[in-house]
Amino acid sequence: ALDSQYGMYVWPCAVVLAQYLWAHRRSLPGRRVLEIGAGVSLPGVVAARCGAQVILSDSEELPQCLQSCRSSCLMNRLPHVPVLGLTWGRVSPELLSLAPIDVILGSDVFFDPKDFEDILMTIYFLLEKNPQAQFWTTYQVRSADWSIEALLYKWNLKSIHVPLHSFGADKEHLASSSMPGRHTIEMMIISLAQSEGT
């Protein structure tokens, strides 16, 4: 039982998203990246080490997760990466004052169905402010009924599926980690349904 502190572990989805970032590392220098629900921040740390300008965030209601983000930055010699408390579904001063972003990262944020709409509302808000940005997300298939299609439509968002084999993540072991294991992990890129240039 993991209690409410989901963000205190490296989950299989984080390893897969980190692999995607590594596969696209040449496109990262100078890109402005926000990781939501960052927890131990593996994808954000990889993006920062590859030259992206990264901001890490987790719920302002989970100070242990925010501290975990800070600790990951210090352990990876990234002391200047900002860590923000951003709670999904809440339009806070921190959310309103965010600098422009190019990519939003989220690994295994679609965990609890009661959070799905709050997550997508937050993503929609960020994409409206940054119409060319994309949300790169990995999730573990835990239920056959799991679907965000209706919510994507409601929030004027679209998704494309990214096959794991396209970036070498269709294996049980990645980057010396057995973490992905036999879990069914998927990746998608979410963007505004009607934005120019996509």
Topology:
Layout: H1 12-23, E1 32-35, H2 42-49, E2 53-58, H3 63-75, E3 83-85, H4 93-96, E4 103-107, H5 116-129, E5 134-140, H6 149-154, E6 157-162, E7 185-192
Parallel strand pairs: 1-2, 1-4, 2-3, 4-5
Antiparallel strand pairs: 5-7, 6-7
Helix pairs in contact: 1-2
Keywords: Chromatin regulator, Cytoplasm, Developmental protein, Methyltransferase, Nucleus, S-adenosyl-L-methionine, Transferase
GO molecular function, one term: protein-arginine omega-N asymmetric methyltransferase activity
GO biological process, one term: chromatin organization
- According to CATH, the fold-level topology is Rossmann fold
What integer is the average pLDDT?
Answer: 86
Report the order of strands and helices.
Answer: HEHEHEHEHEHEE
Indicate the CATH architecture. 3-Layer(aba) Sandwich
Strand order of the largest sheet: 3-2-1-4-5-7-6
The biggest sheet, with number of strands, parallel, antiparallel or mixed sense and barrel status, is: 7 strands, mixed
The helix-and-strand class reads alpha/beta
Give me the CATH superfamily: Vaccinia Virus protein VP39
Q: Strand share of the residues?
A: 15-25%
Oligomer: single chain
Describe this structure in words.
With 198 residues, this protein is α/β, with parallel strands linked by helices. It has one domain: 3-Layer(aba) Sandwich (Rossmann fold), CATH 3.40.50. The protein is built from 6 helices and 7 strands, in the order H-E-H-E-H-E-H-E-H-E-H-E-E. The protein has helices spanning 12-23, 42-49, 63-75, 93-96, 116-129, 149-154; strands at 32-35, 53-58, 83-85, 103-107, 134-140, 157-162, 185-192. A 7-stranded mixed beta sheet has the order 3-2-1-4-5-7-6. Helix 5 (116-129) links the parallel strand 4 and strand 5 (134-140). Helix 1 runs parallel beside helix 2. The protein is globular, with a radius of gyration of 16 Å. The N and C termini lie far apart (42 Å). Residues 1-5 have low confidence and may be disordered.
